[in-house]
Design a protein that fits this description.
The complex is a heterotetramer, with two copies of chain A and two copies of chain B.
Chain A: H1 8-11, E1 20-23, H2 33-46, E2 52-55, H3 66-72, E3 75-80, H4 89-96, E4 101-104, H5 107-119, E5 123-126, E6 140-143, E7 146-152, E8 156-167, H6 182-188, E9 189-200, E10 219-222, H7 229-234
Parallel strand pairs in A: 1-2, 1-8, 2-3, 3-4, 8-9, 9-10
Antiparallel strand pairs in A: 5-7, 6-7
Helix pairs in contact in A: 2-3, 3-4, 5-6
Chain B: H1 7-15, E1 23-26, E2 45-48, E3 52-56, E4 77-84, H2 87-95, E5 101-104, E6 108-110, E7 115-116, H3 131-134, E8 140-145, E9 156-157, E10 172-175, E11 178-183, E12 186-192, H4 198-203, E13 209-210, E14 216-217
Parallel strand pairs in B: 1-2, 1-5, 5-8, 6-9, 8-10, 12-13, 12-14
Antiparallel strand pairs in B: 2-3, 3-4, 6-7, 10-11, 11-12
Classes of the chains: A alpha/beta, B alpha/beta.
Chain lengths: ~240, ~220, ~240, ~220
């Protein structure tokens, strides 16, 4: 069993118009920049995939990564908790122009909805957002005298993630706080594609240190000198594909 | 009608349908035997409820590590590329539809896909384990079983009489006499022992067998 | 901050009559034998704690650990998925005599109910047990054309766990498959007490390898040469306190 | 009425109530400042939503590792005994009631404990982050804020007019002028600047201040 993919182009090949794509990372920490740029490049070359729904905690920063996707016009809708950043131009411009939709989800609810999708839990109750504008239209219930909002699972067609070590079977580790949403998204997407900073043989990762077990991963591609979104943003880099 | 497959042969037959690279959970007891018959050149990855993926065969006697066991509490070993995880993650794999195949035992399987395999009634101490989760998790839920009970009664029935494990969950049954798919609420006969007539098979089956144009021969090696 | 406890007696000191106690382990793998035996000893000495509700995957094996607790008559109710084992005498006798109650929960639902308690999720929906005797009396709902059972969180007053490494702040690692329910129980109990096979200083466990973060742990006690339930059971050992 | 505490002094005052060994989440922005004023001899453990427990101060300029950040996307360092975990586990800590204290900023706090701190209305791009989770998670939810808006309007009000972050969640407010508890749907004055009369304080407070027998002096060092 070998889930390694030949290159970045192959890695993003299965993403089609209108799909829901989860992208790992919290700000620049954990953002799979090379996978995202490969997808932007494909769009610039072929006009596809377009009208994507993207799930990420944020909505891009500067002119690289997710911001470059939005700039390119590939994203029809963002599902996120915090569409602001040091340089949120890409999203802000499109949002205020009515060219991109936004589903705003509290961060913990976003995480739990993704986790629920991976765990086969179609709905759950959370106290978060009860009595607020973000709970409007959602079922509520009382348990033990406290009020809760019913939230639904959030699934995706594809997840694009960044990991530190990855073996050929798909077992993953992450680097520091770059873990964040990625283990959840790996389980919530029908197809999970991961850029790993170092590709290793099965057995090289201690089974006790695996964070994402191979069952959640469909493809791994090695990107040895991965770029970091925050560093690129601070350098003023723009990716236009 | 005397010829029938041995348990090992039933397990062998079920193993032939497990593709390379698939993630598989084998129920405790008889289904565990399926792992022994993985066809050459195919690598299945075995999952156990208690938090291990990609385990291998039992260690030699005396080499057991009792912190490294399967759901049946038997000592196991690891293969390269194994992972440990906690019980919620383990059942996320199950309930979340990440397993490709679950192979389970049965007391009864009904033509509507209902399965009864956890309780023989109100007597004694009831125990369910992970069976009710597994039947709603794997992409394909198959059963391996003798075709009839020890008393000769059909285990493939119209409706289960024993307490259900799951509703409409089974899609294929490997028995000592036949391979039967469950499609549209009917038993569809796919393979049968060559020595057995369809009438003989129907006589020990508790619901009508739908007969497609092609019915294969169920043949297994001596094991 | 130092959460280390002086000894096993102190570790089990806060457990009172009628409490719900979660006990880590799956069969003998991860069973905190020394903590359990300290509790049995306390009961034999003082008559307390009694009438406990115990949450564990199983209901004891042989005459040690959880089986010894049941034998001693401290347990009023078991919440578990599989009250059978190689030698289930302790539970079976009391159950058939009507001296112990049983709440039978499918294993994945048990895990998820415990996980939900730790995560502040009062209820969730699962396909597991729909249409079976174990769903009788529970609310059901349909999502996307499929039927689900509503399950409630499962909390405890105390969790008694076994870990491999533990630092003085309470960060934990586990040994192989001994992890099982323990990280979930650590978060679901008001008070989480852990016997660790090796006590280390904060910083000795790589932050990426911590399985249970310190926030879920209230006390750690070192048991350097911890016994293994399965081995004891196979030796025919009985713990009578 | 001209004297008031600086932001640093408000943060200092809030820090005095954080006990040794408590687990604390500080909201992004102004609340982060509370960490600087931990009293000598007390060790709080700081949590950040993006999956780090027990982080320390910012690294020196040029030493940043952008994979090691807090919820405000600022570079952080680790203390001994730190842990990484994924976002669902991180919010299990929050929602599950494991944090002892959350200290947040506010646009408005109402006497019924309602908090508005995420949206100033329908204009612009809305963003909520983890605020709505934090207000329902920590055992104690405190607010630090200037007592009035830049326009001099009360931020402690009868009922919030801005979109709510959470209902009945705040139990203590540290302002530039006072420390106020929320009990039984009322603002209870605990401390005020010594230079300020109760009438002066009431005049800039949007709901009635309940006056207990003892009202302490709010004094903070020069910072």
């Amino acid at each position: 069993m070998d889930k390694t993919l030949a290159n970045l182009e192959a890695a993003v090949g299965g993403i089609e118009d209108g799909m829901t794509v989860m992208i790992g990372g919290f700000g620049g920490s954990g953002a799979p920049i090379e996978l995202i740029h490969a997808l932007v490049d494909r769009f610039q070359r072929t006009g596809s995939p377009k009208n994507l729904t993207v799930v990420n905690n944020n909505a891009g920063n500067g002119r690289v990564g997710l911001a470059a996707m939005i700039d390119a016009g590939m994203v029809g809708k963002m599902i996120c908790s915090f569409p602001r950043s040091a340089d949120p131009r890409a999203f802000t411009e499109k949002y205020l122009a009515g060219e991109i939709a936004l589903e705003l989800v509290p961060q913990g609810t976003l995480a739990e909805r993704i986790r629920a999708a991976g765990a086969g839990i179609p709905a759950f109750y959370t106290p978060t957002s009860y009595g607020t504008d973000l709970a409007v239209g959602k079922p509520t219930a009382e348990f033990d005298g406290r009020h809760y909002v019913q939230e639904r699972w959030l699934k995706a067609d594809v997840a694009l993630l960044k990991a530190e070590l990855g073996d050929r079977m798909g077992n993953l580790t992450y680097r520091k706080a770059a873990r964040n949403f990625s283990p959840l998204m790996a389980a919530a997407a029908s197809r999970t594609i991961v850029q790993v900073s170092r590709l290793v043989e099965p057995g090289a990762i201690d089974p006790e240190q695996v964070i994402t077990p191979s069952i959640f991963v469909d493809g791994v591609v090695e990107v040895a000198d991965a770029q970091q979104e925050e560093a690129l943003m601070r350098q003023g880099v723009a990716h236009v594909g | 009608m005397s010829a029938k497959l041995s348990n090992a042969q039933i397990a062998w037959r079920a193993a032939q349908d497990i593709e390379d690279g698939t993630y598989v959970n084998l129920g405790i007891g008889f289904p565990e035997m399926v792992a022994k018959f993985q066809p050459e050149g195919r690598q299945a990855i075995f999952h156990t409820e208690n938090g291990v993926l990609n385990f291998g065969e039992a260690p030699a006697a005396g080499e057991e590590d009792w912190d490294l066991i399967n759901a049946g509490k038997k000592a196991i070993t690891l293969r390269p590329g194994a992972a440990f995880f906690h019980h919620a993650d383990s059942f996320a794999m199950v309930r979340g539809g990440h397993l490709d195949v679950a192979i389970l035992g049965a007391y009864e399987v009904a033509e509507n896909g209902d399965l009864a395999n956890w309780s023989t009634g109100p007597k004694g101490v009831p125990a369910v384990g992970g069976a009710m989760d597994l039947v709603h998790g794997a992409k394909r839920v198959a059963v391996i079983t003798d075709h009839v009970t020890k008393d000769g009664k059909p285990k493939l029935v119209q409706r289960c009489t024993l307490p259900l494990t799951g509703v409409g969950c089974v899609t294929r049954v490997y028995t000592s006499l036949a391979v039967v798919d469950i499609e549209g609420g009917r038993f569809v006969l796919r393979e049968k022992l060559p020595s057995l007539s369809i009438d003989e098979l129907q006589a020990v089956t508790g619901a009508e067998l739908v007969l497609p144009p092609q019915i294969g021969d169920l043949v297994a090696p001596e094991l």
